[in-house]
C-alpha cells in the first residue's frame, strides 16, 4: 500500500530574520522583567503571562488550521523544541508589546482581545509579495489601534512607567541603552536604518511645520523624541521587518509617510496619532501591494492573449539546387 505523506511547509523566515526575531524577543522579555521589578510598569504582574499564553494559543491554532487546509505540515513541526520556539518568536514579541503598551484598567478580557486581534490579523490581512502571501498590518500596532478605536475608555500605557521608579541618572541611561541596542539590531539584521532616518527627519520636520502653521509649541513637539516610548516605537515597532519595505527608497517613503500622517492627525487634534498613523500607512501599503498584484496579473493575461492571437507561419515545400548525385534536395521554407 502506498503511503501518503504531508508536504512540509516552507520555512517561516530566513536565518537572518530568525536571528533578529530571537534578539527582539530577548530584548522585550528583559525589558518586561526590569519593567515590573525596577522601572514601574503599571499593569498587573500576571498579565504578561496571560498575554503570552493567549498569543501562543492563537498562533499555534491558526497555524494548524492553515496547515490542514493547505495540505502541509505545520511550520513548527519537524525541528523539535527549537522549531516550536522559533515559530513562536513573533507571537511572543506581539503579546508582550500589546500588554506593555496598553492600559485597560482592570479589564483583563480587553487585553486578551487585543492580543488575539494582533496575532490573528497576520492570518487575515495579507497581500501577495514575491509570490507568497504576507501580512501587511503591524501586528502589535494593529491590536493596540483596534482597542483604542473600540473602547474609548482604554488608553496607551503612561509613558512615565518606563522610568517611573528610577533616578535622574537612569532617566538618561535607559533610553541610551535601548537606543544603542535597537540601532545595532536594525543595522546588522533587519536593515531598516533608512526607514529610521527618514522617520526621524520627517518627524522633526512635521513638528516644525505644525509649529509654524498651527502656532503650537515646536519644542513640545520635538521633546517627544527624547522619551523612552518614542525610542521603543522607533527601534522595535515601526521597523517591523515583516510589515515594512526592504528597499531603501521604499523604506524612506514608509518612514516619512508615518511621520506625515502623524503630523496631520495631530493637526486635527486626534490623540494616539503615532499608532493610528502607523496603521494607516500599513493599510495603504497593503492596498498598494494588492494593486501591484492585480496589475501584474492583468499584464500576464494580456500577454497570453497576444501570444494566442499571433498567426503561425505556414510552411511550404521548395526545391533548391540539386546535390552532387543529381537528386533534388527538398527543404521547408516559411512563407512570409
From TrEMBL:
Q: Where are the transmembrane segments?
A: 20-39, 45-62, 83-102, 108-125, 137-157, 169-186, 218-238, 250-268, 274-295
Instruction: List the protein's name.
Output: Enediyne biosynthesis protein
- UniProt-annotated stretches for the region Disordered: 309-336
Name the source's superkingdom.
Bacteria
Instruction: Supply the alphabetized keyword list.
Output: Membrane, Transmembrane, Transmembrane helix
